Amino acid sequence: MTPEERHRERMQRKKELIDRKIARATIERGVLVVNTGNGKGKSSSGFGMLARSLGHGFRCGVVQFIKGSFSTGEEAFFRRFGEDLDYHVMGEGFTWETQDKARDIAAAEAAWKVAADMLADASYDFVLLDELNIALVKQYIDLDAVLTALASRPPEQHVVITGRGAPDRLVEVADTVTEMRVVKHAFQAGIKAQRGIEL
Amino acid sequence: MTPEERHRERMQRKKELIDRKIARATIERGVLVVNTGNGKGKSSSGFGMLARSLGHGFRCGVVQFIKGSFSTGEEAFFRRFGEDLDYHVMGEGFTWETQDKARDIAAAEAAWKVAADMLADASYDFVLLDELNIALVKQYIDLDAVLTALASRPPEQHVVITGRGAPDRLVEVADTVTEMRVVKHAFQAGIKAQRGIEL
User: Is the residue at A142 inside a domain?
Assistant: First the structure.
């Protein structure tokens, strides 16, 4: 057998294995995706899925729970899609910036009210709740209320939740969970947050 | 001291610490970001950064090295930005689909040629090389050629490289590296790849 034939045979076996796995994955429904961990990519991955969803003509909703984490690049970009996208920047910035716990809680509650309305509305195909985990970790929003809203949402609706420290009970009910792990970060080497990358 | 005052004082100390760290990060230049690991979010995070970059009016280039990994949602979405974005889908799909190593290598080389031209062209502010790591792991593209092109690229140019199995020498020269770790995946529970999430 030539090396080319061996390669083809190995790849044919691999294809059969993968095709069998794909054939077993037959369920079609809205999924709950959670991006957590300390590394870069939690929010940007959420915005990449938002781009995919808009590409399919889905109606999309975004609620950003922490104003300080907000990228002006994202806002400028996604604001162009007025008709298909409801984009809400809520929250009051990072807690060490506001230094006012009562105001932070009120802002988180207002953001959750907007999010809960989206999760109850079947006209939204895709909902991104950016940095919701931060508000859950700080107990500014009731985890039970969030789990109930997620469980009773329209069955076709996709939801993506980002932020470090995802609570265990959220991880349990999610379909796809990724931990973004820092291997290294430019900031550690003295490089400022860069437009197009962080901003 | 009231609990509110204690909170404010704690947050004030945290703010000073973070502000000092931010003040130390003064370098401004193009960064090299690598998204690797087996989890979801490597490509979607790259596309989120592409959205940020387009939001800032940057000229952007995208080369997708593996056709099979390609999301129709992304293509439909980003094709709308003709003037600011050069979008190349190269490659010949996953190796177990083509089963033809010579064709895979030729496709990877053609994709790398387009990418190398972008890395030599200062008019590109942001370049996304999606799934390049796969082609490097399979040694379809010469790692030394890639490292040389990255090192001699325009100093302001941002580059994002995705794909599992990032080579150690690429990780060494990168500024920001994230490992996307699978905690769980919907596919394992029999759920098909979903439009807007994977497709």
Answer: yes
Check which CATH number belongs to the domain holding A91 and give it. Answer: 3.40.50.300
DSSP labels, A26-74: -B----EEEEESSSTTHHHHHHHHHHHHHHTT--EEEEES-GGG--HHH
Model confidence at A71: pLDDT above 80: no
The radius of gyration computed from the CA coordinates of chain B, to the nearest angstrom, equals 20
Nearest to A183 among B22, B74, B171 (CB): B171
CA angle B128, B141, B34 (to 5 degrees): 35
A192–B18 CB contact, under 8 Å = no
From A27, A73, A186, residue closest to B176, measured CB to CB: A186
- Asked whether the beta carbons of residue A48 and residue B189 sit closer than 8 angstroms, the reply is no
> What's the number of domains chain B is made of?
1
Domain that holds residue B153: 28-189
Say if B64 falls within a structural domain. yes
CB contact under 8 A, B197 and A49: yes
Task: Quote the percentage of chain A above a pLDDT of 70.
Answer: 93
Split at pLDDT 50, 70, 90, the class of B100 is confident
Contacts of A81 (CB under 8 A, 6+ apart): A54, A60
Q: Is A164 among the domain residues?
A: yes
For A97-127, how does the pLDDT look when each residue is reduced to its tens digit (9 = 90+)? 667 888 888 889 999 999 999 999 999 999 9
